[in-house]
């Protein structure tokens, strides 16, 4: 199986031994995206907005957009932020929403409040 590493300087570089995204068999697997620069400001909407912009930049680099997303995973430090995250996240999709789960976790990289990964099909 041939794979292609997808990278853009319009999203944060990987902070470990992983790629921003990997394309294989017409599918794009986007690693969890964060907004470390906004995490300490306490604005969950701004943080989520930046995460979604990062994902959009990676999708565009791979020749895709949000309409190609079929699956998303949201990791959140505080589930009481669910409504705000959901509103921002949902604004990036038309009526055909991807499958998704949202999981509350104890801690995220760089002490961010939200991390989102997606799978897209081209």
From TrEMBL:
<protein>
    <submittedName>
        <fullName>RidA family protein</fullName>
    </submittedName>
</protein>
<dbReference type="InterPro" id="IPR006175">
    <property type="entry name" value="YjgF/YER057c/UK114"/>
</dbReference>
<dbReference type="Pfam" id="PF01042">
    <property type="entry name" value="Ribonuc_L-PSP"/>
</dbReference>
<dbReference type="InterPro" id="IPR006056">
    <property type="entry name" value="RidA"/>
</dbReference>
<dbReference type="GO" id="GO:0005829">
    <property type="term" value="C:cytosol"/>
</dbReference>
<dbReference type="InterPro" id="IPR035959">
    <property type="entry name" value="RutC-like_sf"/>
</dbReference>
<dbReference type="GO" id="GO:0019239">
    <property type="term" value="F:deaminase activity"/>
</dbReference>
<comment type="similarity">
    <text>Belongs to the RutC family.</text>
</comment>
